[in-house]
Every structure is written in C-alpha cells, then in structure tokens.
Design brief:
The chain is built from 9 helices and 12 strands. The protein is α/β, with parallel strands linked by helices. The chain has 2 domains: about 170 residues, 3-Layer(aba) Sandwich (Rossmann fold), CATH 3.40.50.300; about 60 residues. The strands form 3 sheets. It has a 6-stranded mixed beta sheet, sandwiched between helices. The chain has a 3-stranded antiparallel beta sheet with strand order 2-1-4, covered by helices on one side. The protein has a 3-stranded antiparallel beta sheet with strand order 11-10-12, with helices on one face.
Length: about 290
C-alpha cells in the first residue's frame, strides 16, 4: 500500500440484521485528492463513510484510514479526521464562537476560530446561539466544526443539503482553499454539479456495489458523452446521439430546412450519472 493512500477499502460489506446494505465495495482516496461518493438514496454512502470514521462496525472486508483500522484506532488517529455527518443531533445552546473554541482546544494544530467562522460565512453570527440559527446556517456551523481541527482527511456527508445557491458557491470556494492547502476529502452529494466542480475522482455506488468509477470527465466511458442532437419534427421532439453532430445537423437542414428547436448538447455529469444508475437498476432487475 502506498503511504499516500489515506483511505483504502477492499471488499467492504455491511449488513444490518438481514438487510445487506453493502456487498462488495472497494475504493481508495490518495493524499491530496477529493473523491466524491455518489449514489441514490439508500445506496450505502453514509454507511460506508461512517465505517471509515469508526462509527459503525463493518461485516466484512479490509478498511484502512490514515493507516489504521477505524474499529481499533484511538484518539490520536481521530484528531487527524474532520467529520461532517449527514445528520447531526440537537443544535447546541452555546454560541457559534464558544462551540468552535471548545472544539478547537481538543486539536494540536487547530485553525484560528474567527478565521473558520469567516470562511463559512458566519462572521456576523459568531455570538449567536447555534440553536437560534436557520437550518442552512447550522449546517455551516457543522462544516466549521469539521474543519476547525485542521484535519488531514475530511469527510463531508451531504454538506450542502439545504444551502441556497449563494451559500453553495461560498462552500465551493471554501473547499477549493482546503484543497489548495492539501486537505484530502471524501464527499457525498446529490448535486452533480458540485461533484463535477470539486472532485478529482468519482465513485458511484448503486445496488450495494460500485457501479462506476472515474474522473468527472471520463466516468461512464466515451459513449456516455456522445453529443445529443435534438430537434422538433412534425410536432414531436426527436433526439439522436451521434459522433458527428455536424453531419447530422447538415442532413436535417437539407431535409427540413431550418429544423425547429434545434440544439446540440453534451451530456452533463448528471446525464451520465443517471445513465449509470438506470443501467445498474435494469441489470439488477434482470
Ligand atoms: P445513503 O447514505 O447512500 O442514502 P445509507 O448508508 O444511509 O445510504 O443506507 C444504506 C441502506 O442501509 C439503506 O437501505 C438503509 O435503510 C439501511 N440502513 C442504514 N442505517 C441503518 C441502520 N442503522 N439500521 C438498519 N438499516 C440501516
Ligand atoms: Mg446518506
């Protein structure tokens, strides 16, 4: 195993009683990388992340995080992790600054609390009780709590759910600055644009297994990225995927004159992702 492999998961399985949540998941995250773990609700993303954080016990397989088995690792190991869970408990009655100060004191090389508050866009709210903040603001506090210890490895489980468009942009800026500092990140999100912008690599889990893996621009293979030509003909929308959209458009113009509602689009990561998940579902049903 390369020393720069901060997360190494091989053949991970997890059952809750009779229910198999993960069957055979292998993935890795190297130092400095951002990996996005994508998949439909219930695919096992949070289960995977919480096993890596040491919060859940696996049923089988090999797991190493920062070189240790999360089920046995201790306090020093945990100090290297930043954790933002998908759902957190009740909001604290402490203020934003109090809560972050208390947490920062537990880490050997914590960030400056006011800088963190500023980075998550809460500088006007540092003295407010967390419980009195809006849902999106409380989520920002949780992100702040995840990064205040200057973690080497940061886990973010749906960090931006409930964010408005501006808060999401601010969050992307924050993540880029963490990436520039060398932070290694494992992220889940339902926002495909977020994954496309932030991730170096993507792993799609579906039906308890890894359905696809690759970079945001290569995952799904070249066929998944064939341009789509759309036009309207005799009242109906038609579409065709083709290697040569120019040739198709020229042929349409020769045949129809100026075709109505003509457009040529490249599939987005969201289109590709949906193809992967649907193909996987069809395969599982067959
Ligand atoms: P995701 O984060 O991808 O939405 P989860 O990891 O939360 O998926 O859940 C994966 C599967 O495991 C789901 O079918 C879910 O219902 C089940 N599951 C998750 N946590 C528990 C639990 N504590 N007990 C029983 N089943 C669980
Ligand atoms: Mg989840």
């Amino acid at each position: 195993m390369a020393s720069s492999r901060l997360v190494d998961v091989q053949h991970l399985s997890k059952s809750y009683g009779d229910h198999v949540a993960l069957e055979d998941v292998s993935l890795h995250v190297d130092e400095g990388e951002t990996l996005a773990l994508l998949g439909p609700n219930g695919a096992g993303k949070s289960t995977t992340i919480e096993i890596l954080e040491g919060y859940r016990v696996r049923s089988g397989g090999h797991v190493r995080v920062l070189g240790e088995d999360p089920q046995r690792a201790g306090v020093a190991w945990r100090a290297g992790l930043g954790i933002v869970l998908q759902s957190s408990g009740e909001a604290s009655v402490a203020t934003v600054r109090e809560e972050l100060r208390a947490l920062a004191a537990l880490f050997p090389d914590a960030r400056e609390v006011d800088e963190v508050i500023d980075a998550v866009g809460l500088s006007g709210h540092a003295g407010r009780r967390i419980a009195s903040l809006s849902g999106g603001q409380q989520r920002r506090v949780e992100v702040a709590m995840g990064i205040v210890g200057r973690p080497r490895l940061l886990f973010l489980d749906e960090p931006t759910t409930g964010f408005d468009a501006e808060a999401r942009r601010d969050f992307w800026t924050l993540i880029r600055s963490l990436q520039d500092e060398g932070t290694t990140i494992l992220l889940t999100t339902h926002y495909l644009e977020e994954a496309a912008r932030l991730a170096d690599r993507i792993v799609v889990v579906a039906d308890r297994r890894v359905a696809a893996e690759g970079t945001p621009t290569s995952i799904g293979g070249p066929e998944a990225r064939l341009p789509i030509v759309r036009w309207r003909e005799a009242g109906a929308v038609r579409e065709e995927r083709t290697h040569a959209p120019g040739v198709l458009v020229a042929a349409l113009i020769a045949r129809l004159g100026e075709p109505e509602d003509l457009e040529v689009v490249r599939p987005s990561l969201e289109d590709v992702y949906l193809d992967i998940v649907r193909a996987d579902r069809a395969e599982a049903a067959a």
